[in-house]
């Protein structure tokens, strides 16, 4: 089994750009798609990125996803931060035997 | 509008059985996998398993195999998650979600969640 490791928390000011990393412990990050989910307090998760870098309809282009094989990690970048972006963010990927979520990153927009 | 509507909050005692539901609407229920995700209080998301309502093909996370049963009734567009004997450690929020993207395991629509509290 593999793990996805995310920073516990990040913070940034409104209008700035923040990047959240998601590092895969074993197996190639490029071999299986990565999804990113946003969960605001008291709400169900919603998808902000699927298939590494695709945005569902309705998700602003301030959200972008990428993968870096050299660090075996995926990243979620949010530009032009708004207070409404304050939430927990989870990455997710899979292998032949399981689906794994990262531990989540709490984004504070202060 | 594509929607997944889950059943209401449950309060149960240890040892009791429980079945919670997730009803799909606005799309062909039999054509998409449905997944279940657990979120324990103050914790992150955990993948439990998936079912394809078209033929009831079911796959479980190794962590949940044998602990829960996932099923579906395609005639009423509803998926289920059930326990035969609840434990206090089953206290959590449970979400269903549609695997609606072309890629494996990407969840495009989520239910609102069902809170399960197990306490004596």
Description:
The complex is a heterodimer of chains A (about 110) and B (about 120). With about 110 residues, chain A is mainly β. In chain A, about 0% of the residues lie in helices and about 45% in strands. Chain A has no helices and ten strands. In chain A, strands 2, 4, 5, 8, 9 and 10 form a six-stranded mixed β-sheet that branches. Chain A has a four-stranded antiparallel β-sheet with strand order 1-3-7-6, with no helix packed on it. Chain A is globular. Chain A starts with a strand and ends with a strand. By secondary structure, chain B is an all-beta fold. Helix content of chain B is about 0%, strand content about 50%. Chain B is built from no helices and eleven strands. Chain B has strands spanning about 5, 10, 20-25, 35-40, 45-50, 55-60, 70-75, 80-85, 90-100, 110, 115-120. In chain B, strands 2, 4, 5, 6, 9, 10 and 11 form a seven-stranded mixed β-sheet that branches. In chain B, a hairpin with a 4-residue loop joins strand 7 (about 70-75) and strand 8 (about 80-85). Chain B is globular and about 40 Å long. The termini of chain B are far apart. The model of chain B has no long low-confidence stretch (mean pLDDT about 95). At the A-B interface, strand 4, strand 8 and strand 9 of A face strand 5 of B.
């Amino acid at each position: 089994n593999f793990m996805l490791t995310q920073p516990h928390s990040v913070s940034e000011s409104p209008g700035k750009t923040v990047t959240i990393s998601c590092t895969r412990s074993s197996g190639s990050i490029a071999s299986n798609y990565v999804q990113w989910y946003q969960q605001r307090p008291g709400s169900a998760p919603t998808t902000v990125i699927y298939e590494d870098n695709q945005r569902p309809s309705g998700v602003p282009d301030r959200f972008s996803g990428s993968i870096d094989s050299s660090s075996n990690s995926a990243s979620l970048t949010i530009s032009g931060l708004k207070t409404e972006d304050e939430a927990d963010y989870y990455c997710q990927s899979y292998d032949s035997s399981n689906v794994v979520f990262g531990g989540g990153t709490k984004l504070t927009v202060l | 509008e594509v929607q997944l509507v889950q059943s209401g909050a449950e309060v149960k005692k240890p040892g009791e059985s429980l079945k919670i539901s997730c009803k799909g609407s606005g799309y062909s229920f039999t054509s998409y996998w449905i997944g279940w995700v657990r979120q324990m209080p103050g914790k992150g998301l955990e993948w439990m398993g998936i079912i394809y309502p078209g033929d009831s093909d079911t796959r479980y996370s190794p962590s949940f195999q044998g602990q829960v049963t996932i099923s579906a009734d395609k005639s009423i567009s509803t998926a289920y998650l059930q326990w035969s004997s609840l434990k206090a450690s089953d206290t959590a929020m449970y979400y269903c979600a549609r695997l609606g993207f072309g890629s494996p395991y990407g969840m495009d629509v989520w239910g609102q969640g069902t809170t399960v509290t197990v306490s004596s």
